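Here is one chain, start to finish.
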Amino acid sequence: MSADFAAALRSAARPVVMEVKCRDADGRELLGGRTVAEVVAAYEAAGAPCVSVVTGRWFGGTEALLAEVAALTSLPLLRKDFVTSRGQLRRSRELGASSVLLTARLLAAGTLERLTEAALELGLTPFVEVADAAEAAAVPHGESCVVAVNNKDIATKERGAGDLTRGPALLPAVRATGTGCAVSASGIDGPRTAAGLLDAGFDGLLIGTGLLTAGSLPEWIAEFDRARGGGPGR
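Its structure:
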């Protein structure tokens, strides 16, 4: 299972991990009256290669949400939460996750290494999130991980706009981890911005709020395709 998430993202015509999230960091409801099933179906229709499910409580998430999404789709799923223990890794797999978020800023280097190794043993892809070069340098087993640059600041609970200059600046440090799947995550504010990050060298993107608040997901995708030169997988 460990290769499924990264391989699906890298080989996708539209390499966007599309996120199911109940509310944003400011408490704004994001589903807008839609059911989870409707959101997942829209993502599948949009060609999502993978789905992220936010189970963190400050975004209104629960483990039940992950189980619900897993019952609705066969796409690889990322559990997005503050995972700090082997027990959470085992539970993530039981609930249907293919990948699990490991936040470098929250984990001591030794803990990050142990959890990365435990995730790989369980068949989960470590989705290691970094925000500076020192965190990227500490990523263990990078060749087996997705390494993502968080464009927002977890110290402020990811409130406010993302710093979209951070990712391109950190991309060489991310590549130095050995990862074959570098991702820009959070704060991506529109389809043209998203396309620009792929042009800058990222293999994939993780977008939640930007998709959930789009007036029309098909129109968002169409503009994204146009910004990439007329179509997916150009």
